[in-house]
Design a protein that fits this description.
The protein is of the alpha+beta class. The chain is built from 19 helices and 48 strands. Helix 2 packs parallel to helix 3.
Length: 949
């Protein structure tokens, strides 16, 4: 009997321990969960002392790591310039790796001095190429009188100044003072090598005449009977130069379609790394494609004809009129599609995969911005260890996170807040919204754009980058920057756990896009929906999915081949999905259609918007492929399933076709998150016992009430990553899934951790007002404690407002921090405490009550709960407010103080009205911006007791 009692007691103790082990707690903040930053080394003019000093400041502010990107230099610092990859530069890199390791920080490195990949060691053979052509007409019995030659027209484009191409020598890397030249594109006047000369008759005959052209371009050929059109293809040098390059990094951009060019480029790094320990380096980085951010496009590689034949199964020589849009529309589109698919594969295999394989020989990963590439960027991201995006559009962001999700990658990163606002105007609250957007798009490893290395000796504002939010210690928001970093780290500590949990795989109709001409150019560059899919059905469909609250990822043809299914569930990358959606697709390759039908045979539900695919893409073996397509689709027998949906059973699964995607997904059993109807955006992940939700209210109205979840749960833990408050949320049953009570002010966000088992823990302290707001009145002592150009005198006031409205000029040009101090009696009202609302703040604030810190507030809501136990009969309130850099910068520009002293683009303005006569940013016309504690400041009694019922 005693043994039985003891055993029962032990079991109860274990059960209790397990329950309490599940009680809510914040995941650990790690180097990887913290936000990182791009770290620009201007001119690589760095030294060990300042490197260490800055890294220590970054670490103290809560940054997890840096990505070194070397760029153009600073005028006056030429003696400190260090050539990219030189032995001295390598010493600076290894010092950084050592110091970052000491501080627990990570380091990535951009694999070019600027972008794209290129440099002085890139030879003309390995540089990016383009193709051009000339046509000639010859009648039967005649010879071509013209020489088959092409003289490349000279082009020189430089940043912010004119360059006479006659002053340059070929190749570009041999020119002196490339920093000052700031070349963006250079094409020298020279004859271009002939790639092929093809003759096409009006009877459909084709003749290769390339071997009949002598060194002077004379064609030794008499045309047979008929009328002949000759196409002469010439290979040119695109001339694109590395953008924003630093010393030792200027030069030609590589031919991304050539494996040899990529390998030769990377060999320079092998040489530089010899004798240096770079093992601590986590990843190499590519800052987007952007080869064609120039005149013309890089659209050719010397092995194009051979690669095309190998991959597409027919000879491109015979279809040059179609390639250049001079044949029938159908043939034009098909050959163009095949050309673009070949380019896409070359960029994938000869650049991205080759680069990734090389990085593994260094024990490192690659981080890659694939957007903007003339390829299916989902496939480029798929062979990238950490896919990275940028921008503000959720659909654009989802391309990188989708590839990460469907291929089982833990991290998706972002270049964050690239140009969130004009220089010096971005608030921490603005950046918080931007960071939320990336998290909602599936990113979980954010990088700020960015932070300049700036030596201690540099006068304020220090060294800056031309397009950035200036996340550096000279920025006045640095005082409160750590609060934002802690917020992001808390969010990412959840979003790096578990697995993505979207329901729908949206097939990306790349072949519809490949087949769609883009004006007079051959390439189509892909960047989200906007570039490549604009106006196609997939645009409206995916926008509707977002609006309706469906979780989805994009998927490519190659990635679909790796999707497996046994029963209704679809598996890829360790993640489970419910269906594949074809968004009104016209062209689909046979392997893709076969895979989709096989998944359905095995039990999956495939959702087809509007109609089944009607054709195959490309030209090779067309009739046979069309016949197979017809046969595959002919086996589907559709019947009316109601609500505008047609259903065809196939094996264990089914194909659903209809116009309304909502009805289709409902018929497929896919549920949406209806919280979006209440203004709550979300991203969802699964964990072993339930789900994680990141929720954000980006609307103008507060969300307070019950919000339904579409995943089962018996308990929900609620976390506020900004205030760090957490506890068990109020939950009530609503059918098969629960409702959870939320309080989200505009701009506020939270995290839910659901559990399908009952979990006990402290209740979340919902705030409920218990009275009316009481104004904090009396005298405020304003003391300017940090900033410049000078500290204004202390001021007393009874009326709060912008400190720029105070008397004197010093307050109008001041950027920095001021403390506002006042006293107030114990406020009236019942409850556990009071909500202190600061009203309007420009821009961020730290709050102390009776000498104790009660919160750092970065907005957009500036309020904090003060428990009754922290107050006494008479209380002292101190609010330390930091404004933006804008007023001090404007004063400098009005007084023509020289701080814009950077090579290349210098400091560019985002908005036209902020450009001077030379096109450089100026704040000279700016009026003083509101600054300080503007108020009104109030205290409202509040309760934090029982959960909502």
């Amino acid at each position: 009997m005693k043994k039985s009692t003891f055993a029962l007691s032990l079991l109860l103790s274990l059960a209790t321990a397990q329950t309490w082990a599940q009680a809510p707690k914040w995941p650990a903040i790690t180097q990887q969960t913290k936000p990182w930053t791009r770290w620009w080394w201007e001119g690589s003019a760095v030294n060990p002392k300042d490197l260490t000093n800055l890294l220590e400041q970054y670490q103290k502010a809560g940054l997890g790591g840096v990505e070194i990107t070397t760029i153009y230099g600073v005028h006056g610092a030429e003696s400190q310039f260090i050539d990219f990859l030189s032995p001295k530069w390598m010493d600076m890199l290894t010092h950084t790796l050592t110091e970052a390791g000491r501080l627990g920080m990570g380091v990535d490195m951009a694999q070019a001095s600027g972008w794209p990949f290129g440099g002085p060691w890139v030879t003309p053979t390995d540089a990016c190429k383009y193709v051009t052509y000339q046509t000639y007409s010859v009648k039967g019995g005649e010879q071509l009188k013209e020489a088959v030659t092409f003289m490349q027209k000279p082009i020189v484009r430089a940043i912010n100044h004119q360059v006479d191409i006659k002053t340059l020598v070929d190749p570009v890397a041999k020119n002196k003072d490339l920093q000052s030249l700031a070349l963006d594109q250079v094409r020298f006047e020279k004859p271009l090598p002939l790639q092929t000369l093809m003759a096409y008759s009006d009877k459909g005959e084709t003749v290769d005449l390339t071997s009949k052209v002598d060194a002077q371009g004379k064609l030794n050929w008499t045309a047979p009977a008929g009328n002949w059109t000759l196409y002469a293809l010439f290979q040119g040098w695109h001339g694109k130069q590395v953008e924003r390059a630093g010393p030792g990094g200027e030069g030609d951009v590589i031919d991304h379609f050539s494996k040899t060019a990529t390998q030769h480029y990377l060999q320079r790094f092998d040489e530089a790394f010899k004798g240096h320990d770079i093992k601590p380096l986590r990843a190499f980085f590519n800052d987007s494609y952007e080869v064609d951010d120039a005149q013309g496009e890089s659209n050719w590689t010397p092995q194009m004809f051979a690669e095309f034949q190998k991959r597409r199964g027919y000879d491109l020589h015979k279809y040059l009129p179609a390639l250049f849009g001079k044949d029938t529309d159908d043939r034009n589109h098909r050959v163009l599609c095949d050309y673009r698919e070949t380019i896409s594969e070359l960029l994938l295999e000869n650049y991205t995969q080759t680069w990734s394989d090389w990085a593994k020989t260094q024990g490192a990963l690659i981080r890659n911005q694939a957007h903007g590439s003339p390829a299916n960027i989902l496939d480029l991201y798929a062979v990238t260890d950490i896919p990275e995006t940028e921008g503000t559009d959720l659909l654009r962001i989802k391309f990188a996170s989708s590839a990460a999700n469907v291929t089982g990658k833990k991290l998706a990163s972002s270049e964050s807040a690239t140009w969130e606002n004009e220089h010096f105007l971005s608030k921490l609250s603005d950046i918080k919204v931007a960071m939320d957007r990336y998290l909602l798009g599936g990113v979980n490893h954010t990088f700020y754009h960015g932070t300049n290395y700036s030596p201690q000796a540099a006068a304020w504002p220090g060294w800056l980058f031309y397009a950035a939010v200036h996340f550096n210690p000279n920025n006045t928001f640095w005082t409160d920057f750590g609060k934002l970093n802690t917020y992001v780290a808390h969010c990412q500590s959840f979003l790096q756990e578990g697995k993505p949990n979207n329901d729908v795989l949206v097939y990306l109709p790349i072949y519809d896009s490949f087949s769609n001409p883009s004006g007079k150019v051959l390439l189509q560059h892909y960047d989200g929906i906007e570039h490549g899919f604009k106006g196609m059905p997939v645009e409206n469909t995916t926008e509707a999915l977002l609006k309706k609250g469906y979780g989805f990822d994009f998927i490519s043809d190659k990635q679909l081949q790796r999707v497996t299914g046994a029963g209704a569930a679809l598996h890829t990358g360790g993640v489970t999905y419910q269906t594949v959606l074809l968004p009104d697709v016209r062209l689909v390759p046979l392997p893709t259609l076969e895979r989709v039908l096989t998944l359905a045979q095995n039990g999956a539900t495939i959702v087809v918007q509007n109609q089944l695919p009607t054709d195959v893409p490309g030209l090779g073996n067309l009739d046979a492929r069309r016949a197979t397509l017809k046969k595959l689709l002919g086996q589907l027998k559709f019947a009316d399933a109601g609500k505008g949906v047609q259903k065809a059973a196939i094996g264990k699964g089914k194909i659903l076709v209809g116009k309304d995607v909502d009805q289709l997904l409902a018929a497929a059993g896919v549920k949406r998150e209806a919280m979006v109807d209440q203004g709550v955006q979300y991203v969802r992940r699964s964990h072993a016992k339930g789900h994680y939700y990141f929720l954000a209210n980006h609307g103008e109205k507060a969300v307070e009430g019950w919000v339904k979840l579409q995943t089962p749960a018996k308990s929900v833990a609620l976390y506020n990553p900004m205030t760090e408050k957490f506890g068990m949320a109020s939950v009530r049953n609503a059918g098969s899934t629960p409702e959870v009570y939320l309080q989200l002010a505009p701009g506020e966000s939270c995290i839910l951790e659901t559990n399908e088992a009952a979990v006990t823990g402290p209740a979340y302290a919902y705030l409920k007002t218990a009275g009316t707001p009481q104004p904090v009145t009396g005298t405020w002592d304003i003391n300017f404690v940090k900033g410049g150009p000078e500290l204004p005198a202390k001021v007393q006031t009874k009326e709060l407002g912008s400190w720029t409205n105070l008397s004197g000029d010093a307050v109008k040009k001041f950027s920095g921090t001021a403390t506002y101090t006042t006293s107030f009696p114990m406020p009236t009202g019942s409850g556990e405490g009071w909500i202190l609302n600061l009203g309007k703040v420009a821009e961020s604030a730290r709050v102390q009550v009776n000498g104790q810190d009660v919160g750092t507030l970065i907005g957009p809501v500036y309020q904090v709960f003060i428990p009754k136990s922290q107050l006494k009969a008479t209380n002292t309130l101190t609010v330390s407010v930091s404004n933006a850099m804008a007023n001090r910068i404007a004063d400098m520009d009005k007084n023509h103080v020289e701080w814009k002293k950077f090579y290349n683009v210098n400091i560019a303005a985002r908005l036209p009205e902020n450009r001077d006569a030379n096109g450089v940013f100026t704040a000279e016309k700016w009026a003083p911006r509101e600054s300080g504690l503007i108020g009104p400041v109030t205290l409202t009694p509040a309760t934090t007791g029982a959960q909502v019922q």
